[in-house]
UniProtKB/TrEMBL annotation:
It is a multi-pass membrane protein. It comes from Cohnella soli. It comes from the Bacteria. This is Carbohydrate ABC transporter permease. CDD domains: TM_PBP2. Residues 65-255 form the ABC transmembrane type-1 domain.
Amino acid sequence: MRKAIVYGLLIFCSLLFIAPLFWALTTALKSQTELYLFPPKWFPSVWKFGNFAEAWSVQPFNLFLKNTVIVTALATFGQVLSCALVAYGFARFVFKGRDFLFLVVLATMMIPWEVTMIPQYMEFNYLGWINTLKPLIVPSFFGSAYFIFLLRQFIMTIPREMDEAATIDGASKLGIFVRIIVPLMGPSLILVAVFQMLSCWNDYLGPLIFLNDQSKYTLTLGLSQFKGMYGVDMQSIMAITCLISIPPLAVFFFAQRFIVGGLAGTGIKG
């Protein structure tokens, strides 16, 4: 009886999370006359699968997809590379002021992005980067405090004896990092890559601030083009939302076991 109650609660909670996604999918497949019926219909009378292709062709979403892929790929690569190097330095190198610098890095997590938004815009405007993809990519190459903390915690679980053995064999610090630390950091690096990918793919405020030309728009900005002054094309919004949700969902499902492993590994030793 207890197990049945637990499974019943889990199924009920799952339905609560699935319901909005299911509603978005069925709304994308409805005709215009069925969108605002009351009481609402969960299932359309005629399944209009052509709505997806029609919504995709209304705006240049092929170009938006290309821009989003470029930003996501480069930003994810920069985040993984920079955070892994900084975390390795904090976890393995001993130097004066190391702990203080690490506290300063952690303290930056308490500063919301809305506070630094205007200074960043002024800086990127001075550099001539406004209306380019650089403001969405370059900052990722300077790391994230949260990801640095996660990777540092994982590196500290790796025995130092492995570093010492590699040093005796003639390996340099960089060689130890590339040949020993990075292969062992696989789950944590995948965790960082997935989180960064989801953040870049779903980012709306950043592109909205730094991009002006439609040729530079990402998918999230392209989605907002269906909202006009006199109405909202709800059918197209739901159709595009379903389409652009497929890559993040696929990445999450395929990397789920690595995410769990990466989070477990970062909490073993503090």
